[in-house]
Amino acid sequence: KALDLEDLNEEDIDEDEILAMLSPEELKELQSEMDVIIAPDESVPVGQRQKDQTEKPPTGTFDHRSLVDYLYWEKESKRMLEEERVPATLLPKKEGNKSTKCLPPQEAPEEPETVEPNEKLPEKEERKIGKLKIPKLSLNNIKITSRPSGNDTNLESTLDKIRKNNPSITEVNLNNIENIPKEMLVDYVNALKKNKYVKTFSLANTGVDENISFNLANMLRENRSITTLNIESNFITGKGIVAIIRCLQFNETLTELRFHNQRHMLGHHAEMEISRLLKANNTLLKMGYHFEQPGPRMVVTNILTRNLDRDHFFILK
To answer: Structural domains in the chain?
Structure first.
């Protein structure tokens, strides 16, 4: 109902009645216009002149246990960060028994798992184009494979050659191959235990899980030829990664390890364990993983730098 305000005097205007006729959206719009037109009252404290901008939907119920765990790992990360900034000679020595088992003991409670989209690793393709001369595409120049991934590795024959220690097989690339049976992945890992010629083993985006990661850990304990291991974009948990890192104290051959982009978050405890266990390894030079905690990140960076310096020293020597 519209009111003819021109025929009414100021005394006859009922402001409460007009405001009662407005919808909540109209009231908010009126409040915004009033904030712009009317100058703030200088007698009112500054904190009370500002409009409330804190309205937002609740993020969830309060979880005291999660908060305590988060504060604990934050404290441990800061402590580790400070220790890395202090010269090693000023730190008290810590004695500990060296574990001889690759499988992890009882772990702390795992961090909440978050599901992230599983990303496929793109195939690296290089195309050389001459100066202003672009060759025409033809079916003869296109490599056709039976798999959508484009990886045409013959699983059965490659596995057989690995078992027979064939010197022609120095790189095993299973990246992005769909639906490889878990039993076949285990057979590949077990066959590499005694193999002497394979240098690179790539299992990115092949569905490797925690059980297979334990087999990988035991394989690295015995294998003396693999220098690069790629297990990115899989389903390995923090326990599986820690088991692999634990076995690196018995491996002096592996120089590059890549395990980024797992479907499950590793968690703060796993990152702490990784940084602690890597101190016993002197040969790892590259690691493909981004640490969430600054403490373990700095520790691992210093360890890899130490190993690089050590490697360069022996080369010069």
So the answer is: 155-316 (3.80.10.10)
